[in-house]
Amino acid sequence: MPEADTLDLPIFPLGTVLFPDGLLPLRIFEQRYLDMTKACIRDDAPFGVCLIRDGKEVGEPAEPFEIGCIARIAEWDMPHLGMFTLLCRGEQRFRIVERWTEPNGLQRARVRRMDAPTEHALPARHARLGELLDRIVQQVGASNFPQPLRTDEAHWVARRLCETLPLDDALKLHVLEGDDIEAALDRLGEYLARNGAL
């Protein structure tokens, strides 16, 4: 009998990081993921998204990092036979406890849900990060962001910047993994300043 805070999920290793409340468009064409998608749509079931540690998105099963995000299909379409286009929404972080590969190459895992971090006001020394995100929201439109907008909340700002800017994957994973939001903001601010974004 699984523990109350664990669940069995199909795992989709990707070259990107999904965050809680984030949106992820996907184009599905490999048979193992077509089968996964059909099952998720039929059962209104989630799947897990993890950043790839080693390997590629297509072909042989890639090795994922242990921490990922539960994804649920919000919208789907089948533009032609053998392909799905999906819009998925991130829900809750998880940590892989045990992982295995099925005969069709689809990975599954027993995962433990991670608690949502305690909300924190964006520290004054990181006000420029909130201002940068405000400008991005104005440029691309508030409808492209999870509602309500919370550009004064530390985790929300860090996650949305990771989603909208071409940041290093290791930095994005650090933001997803870390409950020390001030350390994550420090690292994010240093990266953006070093690359001329602040």
What does this structure look like?
The protein is an alpha+beta fold and 198 residues long. Helix content is 31%, strand content 34%. It has five helices and six strands. It has helices spanning 31-43, 127-140, 154-164, 169-177, 181-194; strands at 6-14, 23-28, 47-54, 63-80, 83-101, 107-113. The chain has a five-stranded mixed beta barrel.
Query: Distance N terminus to C terminus?
Result: 50 Å
Helix/strand structural class? alpha+beta
Uncertain stretches: none
Rg (C-alpha, Å): 17 Å
Q: Please give the share of residues in helix.
A: 25-40%
Bin the strand percentage. Answer: 25-35%
Roughly what is the average pLDDT, rounded to an integer?
Answer: 92
Order of helices and strands: EEHEEEEHHHH
How would the global form be characterised?
A: globular
Counting H and I runs of at least 4 residues, what is the number of helices? 5
Strand order of the biggest β-sheet: 1-3-4-5-6
Q: What is the count of β-strands?
A: 6
The largest β sheet comes out as: 5 strands, mixed, barrel
Q: Which keywords apply here?
A:
198 residues; alpha+beta
Write the layout of secondary structure elements.
Blueprint: E1 6-14, E2 23-28, H1 31-43, E3 47-54, E4 63-80, E5 83-101, E6 107-113, H2 127-140, H3 154-164, H4 169-177, H5 181-194
Parallel strand pairs: 1-3
Antiparallel strand pairs: 1-6, 2-5, 3-4, 4-5, 5-6
Helix pairs in contact: 2-3, 3-4
